[in-house]
Specification:
This protein has 227 residues and is an alpha/beta fold. The protein contains five helices and ten strands, in the order E-E-E-H-E-H-E-H-E-E-E-E-H-E-H. It has an eight-stranded mixed sheet with strand order 1-2-4-3-5-6-9-10, with helices on both faces. A two-stranded antiparallel ribbon has the order 7-8. Helix 1 packs parallel to helix 5 and helix 2 packs across helix 3. The radius of gyration is 16 Å and the shape is globular. The protein starts with 6 loop residues before the first strand and ends with a helix.
């Protein structure tokens, strides 16, 4: 079975269009939807970021539909940067529309706490890189995923004086971080993970951008995923 070419579409979000790239695996039955969030939009982050692309590729190879949205103000996505609040709303809107397109749906239950609580939706993986990981932590509090994957997650005081109060995450969350990360120091992530007794996969010789280590990210995701 030949895998379809990636599809770039515009979806309707809370404040306008959201630009999204959808990659569908060459399988008869989808394993789920992997929603992948890119790094900080004010520092060049977009859905075309190499780390986000590599994570999406790993999920496609595992049989997931990989969905990469652009955050507000990036590419054809409308709106302005909202420090994670509006971005979380947008990701949930994208996820709901992907469930409508690919999942087994029934009408949304009136008053349901989750916008995709009703029906039989596909399993969801929430994955994010840097600022995108921080946003996905917030999404996970509203739409509990099958699993959460955080790559170099923004936690604590980071470069440029930005501070992220990262929430607790599920115990099976996969956290990947480089030991040479100067943007989000490894010490920040370990201090956040320690009270949760949350393991962290540390990649030696990796900075925040995982130069020449993208294949390692894909390999870690593949090796740690249940068969």
């Amino acid at each position: 079975m030949t895998r379809p070419a990636p599809e770039r579409v515009l979806l309707q979000g809370p404040v306008g269009n959201i630009e999204v790239v959808i990659e569908v695996p060459a399988v008869a039955t989808f394993r789920g939807i992997a929603l992948v969030a890119h790094p900080h939009p004010l520092f060049g982050g977009s859905l075309d970021n190499k780390v986000a692309q590599s994570a999406a590729r790993a999920f496609v190879e595992l049989g997931f539909i990989a969905v990469r949205p652009n955050f507000r103000g990036v590419g054809a996505t409308q709106g302005e940067h909202d420090h994670g609040d509006g971005e979380a709303d947008d990701l949930i809107a994208v996820l709901q529309q992907m469930q409508t397109r690919f999942g087994a749906q029934s009408p949304i239950a009136a008053g349901a706490q989750s916008p995709i609580a009703a029906g039989t939706p596909l399993p969801v993986v929430l994955a994010g890189y840097s600022f995108g990981a921080y946003v996905q932590m917030r999404v996970a509090q509203r739409v509990p995923p099958q699993r959460l994957v955080l790559i170099a997650p923004a936690t604590g005081l980071v470069a440029a004086g930005r501070k992220y109060d990262a929430p607790n995450v599920p115990a099976d969350t996969l956290v990947i971080h480089g030991d040479l990360d100067e943007t989000v120091p490894l010490a920040n992530v370990l201090a956040w993970a320690a009270p949760q007794e949350l393991p962290v996969v540390v990649l030696p010789g990796c900075d925040h951008f995982f130069h020449r280590k993208l294949h390692v990210i894909r390999a870690v995701i593949a090796r740690t995923w249940p068969s």
